[in-house]
Amino acid sequence: AKSCDGKNDCGDRSDEEAGMCQNCQHSSVEMCQDGKSCIGLSNGKCDGEDDCGDLSDEWAERCNNCTEGNVFRCTENGIDRCQLPWKKCNGLALCDDCVDESPAQCEN
């Protein structure tokens, strides 16, 4: 397991603790909003999965409004975030406005 690379190798993010990782100063990582750990810019941030534990690595404002990669923008429980692609058009309304299950999104 490699520490301070933004990837949660240990399962509990202990290998990515901000204090141990020079407060996420490396150019390949960014600090989670809670200030506790680092997230990889290319292996965790804006991928639709809550790697930080506070969703800050998926906030639309920090992710180019979810326009890159295979994610979609969704306001869930009042938080504007990027969401996993398989959660769109799966029969379960996840987004507050149900956009993920709208006929316009799901016709194809």
Describe the overall structure.
The protein is mainly beta and 108 residues long. It is 4% helix and 15% strand. It contains 1 helix and 4 strands; from the N terminus they run ββββα. It has a two-stranded antiparallel sheet. Strands 3-4 form a two-stranded antiparallel ribbon. A hairpin with a 2-residue loop joins β3 and β4. The radius of gyration is 15 Å and the shape is elongated. The protein starts with 28 loop residues before the first strand and ends with a helix. The relative contact order is 0.12.
Features:
two-stranded antiparallel ribbon; 1 helix; mainly beta; single chain; elongated; 108 residues
Indicate the topology.
Layout (H helix, E strand, L loop, with lengths): L28 E3 L6 E3 L31 E5 L2 E5 L19 H4 L2
Antiparallel strand pairs: 1-2, 3-4
The helix fraction, in percent, is under 10%
Parts with pLDDT < 50 across at least 5 consecutive residues: none
Q: Helix and strand succession?
A: EEEEH
Please give the largest β-sheet: 2 strands, antiparallel
Strand content: 5-15%
**Average pLDDT, to the nearest integer?**
91
Give me the number of helical elements.
Answer: 1
Outline of this structure?
Helix content is 4%, strand content 15%. With 108 residues, the protein is mainly beta. The strands form 2 sheets. It has a two-stranded antiparallel sheet with strand order 1-2. Strands 3-4 form a two-stranded antiparallel sheet.
